[in-house]
Automatic annotation (TrEMBL):
Ranges for region Disordered: 110-131
InterPro entries (alphabetical): ArsR-like_HTH, HTH_ArsR_DNA-bd_dom, HTH_MetalResp_TranReg, WH-like_DNA-bd_sf, WH_DNA-bd_sf
Species of origin: Nonomuraea rubra
Entry's Gene Ontology molecular function annotations: DNA binding; DNA-binding transcription factor activity
CDD domains listed in its UniProt record: HTH_ARSR
Statement: the UniProt record of this protein carries the keyword Transcription regulation: yes
PANTHER family: TRANSCRIPTIONAL REGULATOR, ARSR FAMILY (PTHR33154), TRANSCRIPTIONAL REPRESSOR SDPR (PTHR33154:SF33)
Listed name of the protein: DNA-binding transcriptional ArsR family regulator
Residue intervals of the HTH arsR-type domain: 1-95
Keyword annotations of the record: DNA-binding, Transcription, Transcription regulation
Keyword Secreted: no
Superkingdom assignment: Bacteria
Amino acid sequence: MTEAAEERLDEVAGAVADPVRRRILVLLRDGPLPAGEVAERFAISRPAVSRHLRVLRRSGLVRAELVGRQRLYTLDPGPFGELVAWLGPFVRPSGWEHRLDALETEVYRTRRERRTTTDAAPGVPGEESTG
């Protein structure tokens, strides 16, 4: 991972680390909202909500567009991709994924054992042993 990519990842992880910012992201998941409507849904001051929106904008998770006299905020899920890619190796597969992984492992083990048996058994080269 390049240094620039790591910095972007740090910004995205830092942005979603705060519970208020996560709630804002959830609100914007349903569609764009003006800053005033976002602020109305929190018990904190409007300037505090504005600071959270600024952090989300800098991380690239939120875009702001001036529509008339209102600033309209829109969720941009693109930067989540890098965070998800980084987190992926830490998550163990569950349910069917886990079972399919176990089946794949068993298929590879069986093939390897057949090859080993075939290589060790005397016979015509290229023919597989049935024993």
